[in-house]
Amino acid sequence: MPKVGMEPARRAALVAAAIDEIGEARSLDVTVAQIARRAGMSSGLAHHYFGGKEQMLIAAMRHILAGFGQSVRQGLAQVEAQSGPQSGPQSGPRARLCAIIAANFEDHVFDRHKTSAWLSFYALAQSTPEAARLMRLYQRRLHSNLMHELRQLCDAPTDTARTLAALIDGVYLRAAVAGTGPDPAAAHRVQSTAMLLIKGSAVTPDRVETND
Amino acid sequence: MPKVGMEPARRAALVAAAIDEIGEARSLDVTVAQIARRAGMSSGLAHHYFGGKEQMLIAAMRHILAGFGQSVRQGLAQVEAQSGPQSGPQSGPRARLCAIIAANFEDHVFDRHKTSAWLSFYALAQSTPEAARLMRLYQRRLHSNLMHELRQLCDAPTDTARTLAALIDGVYLRAAVAGTGPDPAAAHRVQSTAMLLIKGSAVTPDRVETND
DNA sequence: ATTTTTATTGACTCACCAATCAATAAAAAC
DNA sequence: GTTTTTATTGATTGGTGAGTCAATAAAAAT
Lengths: 212, 212
What we know:
The structure is a homodimer.
Chain A: H1 7-25, H2 32-38, H3 43-50, H4 53-83, H5 91-103, H6 112-127, H7 129-150, H8 157-178, H9 184-199
Helix pairs in contact in A: 1-2, 1-4, 1-6, 2-3, 4-5, 4-7, 5-7, 5-9, 6-7, 6-8, 7-8, 8-9
Chain A binds a DNA duplex through α3.
């Protein structure tokens, strides 16, 4: 019963199934057949659309990465909107910094399957050049996002950005290992550390949280 | 040409070879035959001594973990020795905290093969109960080591310890991903963050009352 | 000197899985 | 209505690798 124009839907289904399967198995050692079955199709079709297992995993990684990015953009837009176009000059970068941090710990990013899959992708990135490229892309983007705000908040922005990025990754990593779901304390922990790090050369920290 | 009493040597050789092989392949997908060959023996012998691939990987993980522990003990002993038995009261916990942090970034711990292998072990710990146990052991030990000093240095030691542990793991993770060898800046970055964190809840420079 | 124990090998088995492919069928194009 | 394109299946192939085992040999024990 072939319907036409199935390709995008099937690709999306396979990507979602791959993340779930990897997240549930807590390992990259999942078969194409398992993923395809979960996505409601035959293994042959999975190969037809992705050409191979590796490319499917890359696509899954890219999908999670896109989720991170979307989360950050959404968080920033929200801060922009709620503070208004003529808000005080000092609330801007600080609130945006907190929003960037919070974005990495939002519930849909902190989903058990996704954290577990992401941890597996760290392993993949070690041995697969394309996965390594994506990982670097993620790291550069996070660093650049942090830098954009930190330049206005402290006088050693590069060092501070590196520290914060490592802290974000570390907190996320530990959550992935623990396998516990979303943890509201995670974002707060990183945010207050961020405030401490910039305190040396910045204004008083009035509000630490941006999400109400 | 069987010599007697080979078991310990062969086990050690296999563990070392496993770490090197995993570290070089940057993946857990190494064959027992490869490891055995690198260790200078047949695949059969590897199975004979370890019973299976998984147990060999566990042993390798345990070996790296032991290296961490040794590094910490050594660092602490060194601090103790150089400050002397009747040194000033304020140099103690702070110096020991720094030593614990530095221990995690010493050259032999920061070895390329070991960082890479350790990253792979994160993946293993997700799906293998015994590896998960070892990972928890590592985390508990690190946390407990940090706590021991932080209790004397700040009044939210648990939170601070969690943050520092995540930061240490994050910095180590990023080094593993980057694949660059030992980085002298790594320890320093974590140490100065630690100083900031305990300054946030500053205590009197000398002995402090137990807060719980 | 014989027996037992320990060390060691590598060929073999068995299972698994990625990738291929020929076959089938619905839709679209002509 | 015929042809072409797209979707889909699942059996098959080919390669791989973990784990087993029987055979061999040196050392130790008797």
